[in-house]
Predict the 3D structure of the following.
Amino acid sequence: MSDGDTWKVRRRLLTPAFHFDILKQYVSVYNREATEMISKLLETTKRGQIFEMFQEASMCTLETILQCAFSGGQMSDETKNEYVEAIRKLEILFIEMVFNPIFIVAPSAYKRLPRGREYTRLCKFVHNTSELIIAKRRQQLMRDGRPQQTTGRLDFLDLLLSARYEDGTGLTDLEIREEVDTFMFAGHDTTASSLSWTLYSLAQHPHHQDKVREEVNYLLSGREDDTIQWEDLQKLPYLTMCLKEAMRLHSPLALIERKMLEDTVIDGVTVPKGYDVAIHLYGLHHNPAVWGPDHMEFDPSRFRPERMKDRDSHAFLPFSAGQRNCIGQNFAMNEVKVLLARLIYKFVFEVDPTRPAKKEVLIIMNTKDGMWMKATPV
Ligand code: HEM
């Protein structure tokens, strides 16, 4: 939520953490977490059980961001579960809160109501989790020295801890915690949503799922193991089209907001300075004038290069655009591609026909009563 110079300085500081040379090293982490998820699903399917995709995906992407951005930041499975659950509840409570007239008129009175108190309690838990990760890393650094000497690279948390402003001072504890909070949340929930909804669409459309599997089989044929390498990420065009189409159809982040810094005329309407404006990415991705009357259909061919070339570059904005766009977009695309390729190579996914997923727009595109699916080993 930071803006102005605060945002600019921190964004500049963090951008190197997303350089291609750094991202390359994360492919092995994505593979490790894919292997972990595969063995969990194998256990579930042995018992012939239907499983809840969103929870599995969230646990996997949370561990991935901990490994990649937070120097491994160990968290027990129990705390991860609690964290994922807390974020979901916070999203529900946040949406309720901002539309509640009591909150709008008297935010401090709202905070004293049961829902407000629950919101504060969950915020504290999430903040404490971040503080614990930071404290552990500080201790580790004091014990083992600077990261270049140990792991050979500065990850996101190390960058925050070692950053200096021009006057030589470092970021305050609160500043570091705010950034860790953002990345913990932004770095796992959105990717979990993208992975889950893509698998859901592929489960609904076995024909497209088979084509993705053929592509991955071809890529991995003759290899001794099924890990996806950095160079492979460019060799999965059909999988990438399916991922983009799922991100259009389901829009993992449905809405973003901006404050007007000056009076602005949009389509003949003056939006005054100081107004908050919501930009409806889900609506943008379902504009029939751009996507046609069948915009509710899952059709990966929309992302064939020949169909994309005449489309406005701002018609598809899952990661927003401009200077406040998503800093983690390459990280996210790589991660989801590896997970999709590894999972589809190992399993055939089907939806549970008795429990179709119902969309629930929280901060991210979630589901109302879970996303129940079946995975059968190939
Ligand atoms: C498929 C997954 C993801 C989607 C769909 C997504 C989407 C977005 C969008 C739409 C924004 C712009 C928000 C706005 O304009 O108000 C954004 C910003 C941001 N995202 Fe992502 N994101 C994803 C993954 C990630 C990952 C993996 C990370 C970190 C590793 C991340 C970190 C951030 C941060 C820090 C911002 C704020 C950037 C700024 O204001 O300078 N995101 N994301």
Q: What stands out?
A: The domain at 4-253+285-377 is CATH 1.10.630.10 (Cytochrome p450). The pocket of protoporphyrin IX containing FE is lined by residues 11, 65, 182-183, 186-187, 190-191, 194, 252-253, 256, 318-320, 324, 326-328, 331-332 (CB under 6 Å).
